[in-house]
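Mods, move this if it's the wrong board.
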Amino acid sequence: MFRYRPKIIQGGMGVGISTWPLARAVAQLGQMGVISGTVIEGVIAGRLQMGDPGGHLQRAFNNFPFSAIAERVWNDYFVEGGKDPDRPFKPVPMWSDRPSRKLTELAVVSAFSEVWLAREGHSGLVGMNLLTKIQLPTLALLFGAILAGVDCILMGAGIPRAIPQALEQLSLCKEASLRLQVQGDTGGRVYEVHFDPREITGGSPVDLACPKFLAIIASDTLATSLYKKPEGKRVDGFVIEGPTAGGHNAPPRGGMQEFNERGEPVYGSRDEVDMEKIRELGLPFWMAGSYGTPEGLKKALEEGAEGIQVGTAFALSDESGMDPTIKHRLRQLASDGSLEVITQPRVSPTGFPIKIAELPGSLSDPEVYRNRQRICDRGYLRDAYVKADGTLGFRCPAEPVDIFVKKGGDVTETDGRVCLCNGLLATAGFAQVRRDGEAEELIVTLGEDLRAARALLAGGKESYSARDVVNYLLSGIGESVS
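Not the wrong board. Structure tokens:
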């Protein structure tokens, strides 16, 4: 499978949190570093407008194999010396089923750059994480990562049934397609998004390796279904994610019907994964969700796993892309035991439950949420629907309510929804500045289990590195890295 089996997979967290410095640091330690491909084109466009601090993107762009494309992207977004902080970022166009060439090129170059930087100067394993729910940019991002030599693609938040075949096609520089999930009556019509690598390569022969694919799942039934997929390339392994894991979670079996005193959906015995059925498939797997401790790693190995996937501890490490001021506040709260992470059933426009850190002054604060003017100018979590003329439209329950309803959306779907696109970009330091001069408010997603962060901050420490996280986890099996 891989050149080596990592015991630790660093989670591909949020938007701009699992960036190349973190993934590179973890990969150099003999584990798997993972970059987040979610909204990566927005992140790269933002870094270019900040003047490419450190000159890292210039290095990556210089290594993009089709220089004219890299030059076009650079010229579109780069601001010498960085934009005025009080000025808004130049927006990235919203995706559709027929994206512009400019947007496609930006996506390919962005994914390439992040993976290339994560892989620079070592031979460790680097993966890219994407959300299955966000379909429109997926193929372009996959191809960009493949061009950079990504070792593994990891995807959850949906059923990534078509991804293995798409990876195989893209690695051969052949056209790939994904069937779009469309709301409402399609009249039996199938809607697809297509990507042809030859539009990037110009038909030039390119020798590309097909990355491995790990599906992030929460049920043995889904694991079996993906394993038995009859045609083409199949899944190479799994990350088994429990309901305490950070970010989006699978809803409870049977839907969100029961809630605890904090308003969180209640998970029961039906939501437990039958590990015997997973082991019977014979594919490698890693455990996630409350396994991010030395004891958790030991337990996972005893259960037959290759190791664990860990997010939260890495999200608060020095190398993560989280805005340093926000990271410092969260570390303080985690250290003194006052940081709470709530599984919110209504916040995400996707309809999936999502873990949100209770951080004063952020969108987790009801007053901050009420005072924000609703706007949808990123559009990553919009749903496709069929308009009267048979073409596709796109709507998001976090957009202005009247616009959502005018597009045929159910008004009850808008209650409590948060613009995660803008909120998560703000957490990574890319808050959009509005016409009134105010910047977008942030929102933070973390995992429920904060034991690792607290342990690493014990004794009055104010920070820790990715190396500290790896050594802390490996101590459970008597190992360490120098």
